[in-house]
Amino acid sequence: MQHNDKYILALDQGTTSSRAIVFNQTGVVIGMKQIAFNQIYPKPGWVEHDPFDIWQSQYDAAVGAIDEAQITPSQIAAIGITNQRETTLIWDRKTGKPVHNAIVWQCRRSSRICQELKALGFEPEIKARTGLILDPYFSGTKLVWLFDQIPGLRDRAERGELAFGTVDSWLIYNLTGRHATDATNASRTMLFNIREGRWDQEILMMLKIPEAILPEVLPSSADFGYTRKDLFGCEIPVCGCAGDQQAALFGHACFQVGASKNTYGTGCFALMNTGSEPVESRHNLLTTIAWDLGKGYTYALEGSVFIGGAVIQWLRDEMRLLSDSAESERLARLVKDTGGVVLVPAFVGMGAPYWDAEARGAALGVTRGTTKAHFVRAALESVAYQSRDLLDAMERDAGASIPFIKADGGASANSFLMQFQADVLDKPVILPEVGEVTALGAAYLAGLRVGYWSGLDELERNWRRKRDFMPEMAAETRDRLLERWSKAVEVTRLFK
Fold first, then answer.
1. Whether residue 110 sits in one domain with residue 205
2. What is the pLDDT of residue 496?
3. Buried b vs exposed e over 279-310: b needs ≥16 C-beta within 10 Å?
4. Are residues 216 and 261 in the same domain?
């Protein structure tokens, strides 16, 4: 089907900025606008956003992207939404006014609640039902914190006066007036039974959360309603929704079981398509819903590296070893190896497969001959080693080999890192031509619903590779480097 004068608008609501991107039928960006918004840190370890900042910046970005594309809103066939996940909001159903700032996914304020639930022995049950570990990262305990802190809130929720949602729900509500989410975002709340596809009654009772506050859960490609006429001058269908990491997996066209992607951002997020059955992890990974096209769930295994590209920001901002991030590649290439230096950037503990919150960073093997270039190279290599540990755990959980990795995110622009990643994985690393894969995934989910794209086959044809990094390292070199990395991780975890 040809849609020469029609386009898809993707809203990509992130942790530090809101972006909107207009895509054409071949998946090419024709207009984009990005607007940063304020971060609020009330106490150490606490992170909040003003809900109106989230909405206003996202709306302004949408208007700006349509303007840049030099089209009219009536040419938008559908809107897809992707979002920072786990961030928690409650608002009044009648007035639309939030009762508190959004509590951001990074916020650790519900740590004590998690510890109490663990002490009561609830974690195995929660993991079996939701696929998630009991951690302040997820929305459920943030919601409990709000109920505990704001007098009368639980009573208002029970009377049906309030709406809870993650960022996607907040945007859908402001666009259409509807209180809804999709299965991928629901699967990150710690309240959703990913096997049975419903809000889990037992967990709601455990956490004393009234069901009346929860959104309706729809497929990721579904009819979420039409935008209010006053927003764009016409009613546009909102037809796609997925959390950012799941949207990236979809945007990479990882439709086959075993297909995997790694996003190299501040942290690294790896997801593997595991098909129609949830795979329970034995290596501290999360089991999550990858997407729902209305024909049943596709599941994924997910793991995160806390400090990915952030190690380069640290070298630039705190250590002053770099003038800009791009300089890291030039410096790393000045030396043939790290001179024996291994950097373990466990600045905020270690993520999967370790989940060691107490671990802290270490630099080992430093000599009098260690230079700035050695240190920078070791930092870049640490991103690849951590991702390799994660992907290795995924293969063992899934009982299948990952044939290659599709890569995206800011740090994927670093060719040294991508080549080293291919070398330590002994697998090809493939970069896509369209780097905006998260927004593209949301666009695809919306476009499929309105027939803008005919099906997954057409999306696979749209996926174009920009560059392949093929493994070139000798097996004995790889084995030696990986053994040294493992020893460094062990030493780091002992030092507490």
1. yes
2. 65
3. bebebbbbbbbbbbbeeebbbbbbbbbbbbbb
4. no
pLDDT given at position 3: 57
Domain endpoint, select from 201, 236, 271: 236
Query: How confident is the model over 383-398, as pLDDT tens digits?
Result: 999 999 999 999 999 8
Asked if 203 and 267 sit in the same domain, the reply is no
Neighbours of 155 (CB within 10 A): 12
CATH number at residue 480: 3.30.420.40
Contact 131, 278 (CB under 8 A): yes
Question: Are residues 151 and 298 both part of a single domain?
Answer: no
Give per-residue pLDDT as tens, 316-328.
888 898 888 888 9
**Total of domains in the chain:** 2
CB 9 within 8 A of CB 42: no
Task: List, in order, residues 6 or more apart from 120 with CB less than 8 Å away.
Answer: none
Alpha-carbon span 391 to 402, nearest angstrom: 8
Distance in angstroms (rounded) separating the CA atoms of residues 131 and 292: 16
Residue located via tokens 């959104």: 215
Q: Which residues of the chain have pLDDT under 50?
A: 1-2
What does the alpha-carbon distance between residue 18 and residue 40 come to, in Å, rounded to a whole number? 16
Q: Which residues contact 157 (CB under 8 A, 6 or more apart)?
A: 90, 147, 164, 209, 210, 212, 213
DSSP string, 430-490: EEES-S-HHHHHHHHHHHHHTTSS--HHHHHHH--EEEEE---S-HHHHHHHHHHHHHHHH
Q: How far apart are CA 71 and CA 76, in angstroms?
A: 8
Residue that finishes a domain, picked among 171, 202, 236: 236
Residues 292 and 372 both lie in one domain? yes
User: What pLDDT does residue 355 have?
Assistant: 74
Question: What is the spatial distance between Cα 226 and Cα 47, in angstroms, rounded to a whole number?
Answer: 32
What are the tens digits of pLDDT across the range 173-211?
Answer: 999 999 999 999 999 999 999 999 999 999 999 999 999
pLDDT recorded at residue 107? 83
Both 43 and 179 in one domain: the answer is yes
Domain residues for 217?
7-236
- The answer to whether residues 257 and 232 belong to one domain is no
Domain membership flag for residue 230: yes
Tell me the pairing of strands 216-218 and 17-23: unpaired
